Amino acid sequence: MQVSEVLRVKGNTLFTVTPEMMLSDCVVTMSEHDIGSLVVMDRGKLTGMLTFREVIRVLAKRQLEHRSGPTPPVAEIVVREVMNPDPLIVAPTMDVNELRRVMLETHQRYLPVMDGSTLLGVISFHDVAKAVLEEQGFENRMLKAYIRDWPAEG
Q1: Which pTM value belongs to this model?
Q2: Phi-psi region of 51 (alpha: psi -120 to 50; beta: other; left: phi over 0)
Q3: Minimal CA–CA distance to 16: which of 4, 3, 6, 25?
Q4: Between 40 and 9, where is the model more confident?
Q5: CA distances from 102 to 53, 98, 105, 122 (A)
Q6: Where are the domains of the chain?
Q7: Beta bridge partners of 16
Q8: Each residue's pLDDT tens digit, 121-153
Q9: Could you say which DSSP state residue 69 is in?
Q10: Which residues neighbour 33 within 8 Å (Cβ) at sequence distance 6 or greater?
């Protein structure tokens, strides 16, 4: 199974933000749509990824800074300050087993899928797990049907 097949099953809903967008607005978007990542686009070009990991990191940093003195409110943070500006990118032709290995080794839960300079979508660890489970279920049903229809020897 290839990454493109996982994207096809997942659907093509994609949430993007700009580097100058307020982090607080992004958090609201992520919460409202129950998503863990946003693609950061600037003039039609992928410029980064914002995931809940970056949000948690900046909140923790602000909390620690607050203990030692006044800090600017979180509402004043822009995406450019916290996004991952160099996300790992995968191709639609990548094998899902290779994708799983890469995701585990790099600790990345959300990866943009690019075909050249075209953003096709974002694939999450959840998407991969769901696709693999569905594929295994299909194979299981096919094997059971095959065994049930096994020709009698004679």
Answers
A1: 0.79
A2: beta
A3: 25
A4: 40
A5: 18, 6, 5, 15
A6: 3-148
A7: 39
A8: 999 988 888 887 777 655 666 666 667 766 666
A9: S
A10: 15
Whole-angstrom distance, CA of residue 5 vs CA of residue 8: 5
In the CATH scheme, what is the code of domain 3-148?
3.10.580.10
Of 71, 75, 61, the closest CA to residue 25 belongs to: 75
Most distant CA pair in the chain, distance: 86
Nearest-angstrom CA–CA distance, 141 and 111:
31
Indicate the SS3 state at residue 150.
coil
3-class DSSP assignment, residue 68: coil
Percent of the chain with pLDDT over 90: 60
Quick check: 82 and 54 in contact, CB under 8 A? yes
pLDDT digit string (tens) for 66-96? 777 666 666 689 999 999 999 999 999 999 9
The tokens for 134 are 């569905």
